[in-house]
Amino acid sequence: MDRFIVCGGARLCGELEVSGAKNSALPILAATLLADEPVTISRLPHLHDVTTMIELLGSLGVEVVIDERMNVQVNGPSITSFRAPYDLVKTMRASFVVLGPMLARYGGCEVSLPGGCAIGPRPVDQHLKGLAALGADIKMQDGYVLAAVNGRLRGARILMDMVTVGGTENLMMAATLAQGTTVIENAAREPEVVDLALLLNKMGAKISGHGADTIVVEGVEHLSGCEYEVMPDRVEAGTYLIAAASTRGKVKLNGIDPMLLDSVLLKLEEAGAELSRGDDWVAIDMHGERPRAVDVRTAPYPGFPTDLQAQFLALNTIAKGTSRVIETIFENRFMHVQEMNRMGADIALEGNTTAIVNGVEALKGAPVMATDLRASASLVIAALVAQGETTIDRIYHIDRGYECIEEKLQQLGAQIRRVSS
Ligand code: EPZ
Q1: Which atom of ligand 1 has the smallest separation from the CA of 401?
Q2: Which helix (H) or strand (E) holds 73?
């Protein structure tokens, strides 16, 4: 199993190119199942989760061709199997978004229910309730969802009980080929939902309202092929900006629209960072100063993203003052707290939603263990600011969502290396 060995203390300085967004790439790959022709996707990040989704498409019999520039051509109609197996779905919950497209395009499919998850129970009831409203017959059998429809799905009005990104994506994809109009209310407004809608519209879908909380989909009879570039990864970008602020550094990120990170940039400014913004870049400068503690409360977009909570908490551990970090999206997303406290942080948990962080002058290197993707990134940030050496175990979590993280951090002057054992 690979580990990172990080020698803390270096200020991050330099420039980086932001990779394609994992959370956009995954539903976009699933959406290719809807088309009657091949779809070519570019700027796919080279990540374990993306490989898993490509493997899942392959297991359905879909031909996937990857060219020398990492453009991926997916030939959805070559599908030969209608079963997404447990072995793949259990390793990546996001594979559940093949359900909507397969049902809409082929009239039936069997998709394994995703199992437990380190950050909370994460049910899929909203996906299933919405598909049933579109006319699907849904059954559970032996851990699988068996979904079928006689003819085409039918447009319907769906009111989501809570804001769910994957639920919105699954239903939006299913509705593209339904007969009539679907209205999804209380829809997720995340930029990745918008990116998926833009791809679907390029394939010939008729979606409007994406980016707002009511999405309207007028069903069409078929979707065609196209070429599409995945949006930049705002969580990756946010992670590097928070790492730069934590290490009192100065970093410029290219290839990202700063508007995607508005809530995060405002928090970084509160922490004392100077930010400059262009159309497709953002730069941060801490002028060598220690950050100030900042309260954070996660919320659906455009609120502060849950996927950056752990990283901002790492910043708060060494900031001047006391802060309160509140997690409202997932039930168990503070697994990094125990590990940071082992590095000398002073964090107290109130229930499973609130962390009170007393900023300390410095953390100390220690052996720690990554528990999930974003928690791993937060431990890397903690290790970068700690005195001495930190070993981070189980970094396979980080390889699911950060492209070449050690190379990128080394490019900014960090002392980090991967050790395989
Ligand atoms: C997406 O997960 C992201 N994953 C997550 O990123 C992200 O943390 C999350 O959205 C929230 O922004 C991908 O896009 C692949 P949800 P998703 O459905 O779609 C509850 C990362 O680190 N809920 O918006 O699975 C659910 O339990 C990952 O990159 C139901 O109760 O999240 C949660 O509390 C982790 N019933 C809340 O809604 C449902 O049917 C939001 O979940 C669906 C969700």
Answers
A1: 29
A2: strand 72-75
Cβ count near 113 (within 10 Å): 17
| Choice among 13, 117, 226, 404 that is catalytic | 117
Cα gap 311→304, rounded to integer Å: 12
Q: Residues 186-214: what's their mean pLDDT?
A: 98
Structure confidence at residue 70 as a pLDDT band (50, 70, 90): confident
* Nearest atom (ligand 1) to Cα of 164: 24
Q: Where in 97-221 does DSSP place strands (E)?
A: 108-112, 137-141, 144-148, 157-159, 181-185, 206-208, 214-218
Instruction: Output the ligand 1 site: residues, CB below 6 A.
Output: 23, 26, 93-94, 120, 122-127, 162, 164-167, 192, 306-307, 329-330, 373-374, 401
Distance between terminal CA atoms of the chain? 6
Answer left, alpha or beta for residue 321, where phi above 0 means left and psi between -120 and 50 means alpha: left
Q: What is the pLDDT averaged over residues 345-367?
A: 97
223-238 pLDDT per residue, tens: 999 999 999 999 999 9
Give CA torsion, residues 323, 324, 330, 336, to 10 deg.
40
- How far apart, in whole angstroms, are the C-alpha atoms of residue 11 and residue 195? 34
Which of the 8 DSSP states describes residue 119? T
Q: Give backbone dihedrals phi and psi of 354, rounded to 5 degrees, phi first.
A: -130, 135
Asked if 404 is an active-site residue, the reply is no
Beta strands 72-75 and 144-148, pairing class: unpaired
pLDDT of residue 118: 75
